[in-house]
Amino acid sequence: xxxxxxxxxxxxxxxxxxxxxxxxxxxxxxxxxxxxxxxxxxxxxxxxxxxxxxxxxxxxxxxxxxxxxxxxxxxxxxxxxxxxxxxxxxxxxxxxxxxxxxxxxxxxxxxxxxxxxxxxxxxxxxxxxxxxxxxxxxxxxxxxxxxxxxxxxxxxxxxxxx
Length: 162
Description:
Blueprint: E1 7-16, E2 22-25, H1 26-29, E3 33-36, H2 44-50, E4 58-63, E5 77-81, E6 96-101, E7 105-114, E8 118-122, E9 132-143, H3 146-151
Antiparallel strand pairs: 1-2, 1-3, 1-9, 4-9, 5-8, 6-7, 7-8
């Protein structure tokens, strides 16, 4: 079985941003990532690199910013009331956190400045503008269930739980 649309693929990955040091790794968490292919659940450049691969394939792929988190946008900041953050008292300038938005759902942001009632954040993803290198090992491929296709994401181990 090969990776294609509406298959759930599980894979380990290590990603670096050109600085040589990994910025994220599924191996550190011990579980592979599981995603439903063809539904925009991972960055486009990585999803394209997975297509046609099989269990046991191990490869490296370099993904340019346009196929990852996009180019950095100057002055792409917003002032957000503290009530929209989980545990705002723990945040410090330079930290990454998730901000839940109405339009785009969860969004990774970087804290710039903390005021008494608001937090200024950079809306660029922390990896925006960076060329990413992924070391990938495919561990499993299976047909997606009708429910997974309807929900547009993988369920179960390594995927999303409801």
